[in-house]
Amino acid sequence: MHPLRKHIEELIILTDEEFDVVLSYFEPIQKRKHQYIVQEGDLVDKEYWILDGCLKSYFVDEEGKEHILQFGMENWWITDYESFIKHTPSKISIDCIEDSELLYITFENREKLTAQMHKMERFWAKKSKFGRIALQNRILSLLKNSAKERYDVLLEQYPQLFQRVPKKLIAAYLGVSRETLSRLQS
């Protein structure tokens, strides 16, 4: 079974013919480590689904400090959603931590697909709900949990991240210094 179909069918069931239609709206793309898929200021018209690899979405503040909003690994969706939906310049950048294999769908094709197949409209509505829940939990964790608690939650939820992502990026995601991260790990 195609990995995208398996992913979609966690939420909705598709016939073979329906999946063929869905897949026809996606394009494959390969990116090397450190290549961007989105740079701050871009107009983003693509949403990416990660077949293989690891990416990060982030912004750099006025002092040059990197703040990681999200990591993306296999079976995750990633883009600058504000730019994608509102057609405004991106406020974030997204680049590859590892060589990555992605599928993307353009905004126009996603609109066409959801108009043609209401099942996919339901799929993206459900994915959006889960995304909002994850975002809410991330914000709550940043606001109420100690650095150690945030570290422990990340380690419990995504242990594979610690094998794939440099420590300085984990620290930037947790909102701590590299030195603090070293203390949290001991």
Give a structural overview.
With 186 residues, the chain is an alpha+beta fold. The protein has a single domain, classed as Jelly Rolls. It is built from nine helices and eight strands. The strands form two sheets. It has a four-stranded antiparallel sheet. Strands 2-7-4-5 form a four-stranded antiparallel sheet. Strand 4 and strand 5 form a beta hairpin. Helix 4 packs across helix 5 and helix 8 crosses helix 9. The longest helix is centred in the C-terminal third of the chain and has 27 residues. The radius of gyration is 17 Å and the shape is globular.
In short:
This protein is of the alpha+beta class.
CATH homologous superfamily (4th level) name = Jelly Rolls
CATH topology: Jelly Rolls
What's the helix-strand series? HHEEEEEEHEEHHHHHH
CATH class: Mainly Beta
User: What overall geometry do the principal axes of the alpha carbons give?
Assistant: globular
Percent of residues in helices comes to: 40-55%
* Helix count, DSSP H or I runs of 4 or more residues: 9
Question: How large is the share of residues in beta strands?
Answer: 15-25%
Largest sheet: 4 strands, antiparallel
Query: What CATH architecture do you see?
Result: Sandwich
Supply database-style keywords.
186 residues, single chain, four-stranded antiparallel beta sheet, cNMP-bd_dom_sf, 9 helices, Jelly Rolls, Crp/Fnr family transcriptional regulator, 8 strands, cNMP-bd_dom, alpha+beta
Topology diagram in text:
Layout: H1 3-8, H2 16-24, E1 27-31, E2 36-38, E3 46-52, E4 55-60, E5 66-72, E6 77-78, H3 81-86, E7 93-96, E8 100-106, H4 107-116, H5 118-144, H6 147-157, H7 161-164, H8 167-174, H9 178-185
Antiparallel strand pairs: 1-8, 2-7, 3-6, 3-8, 4-5, 4-7
Protein name: Crp/Fnr family transcriptional regulator
InterPro entries: cNMP-bd_dom, cNMP-bd_dom_sf, RmlC-like_jellyroll
Domain Cyclic nucleotide-binding: 32-113
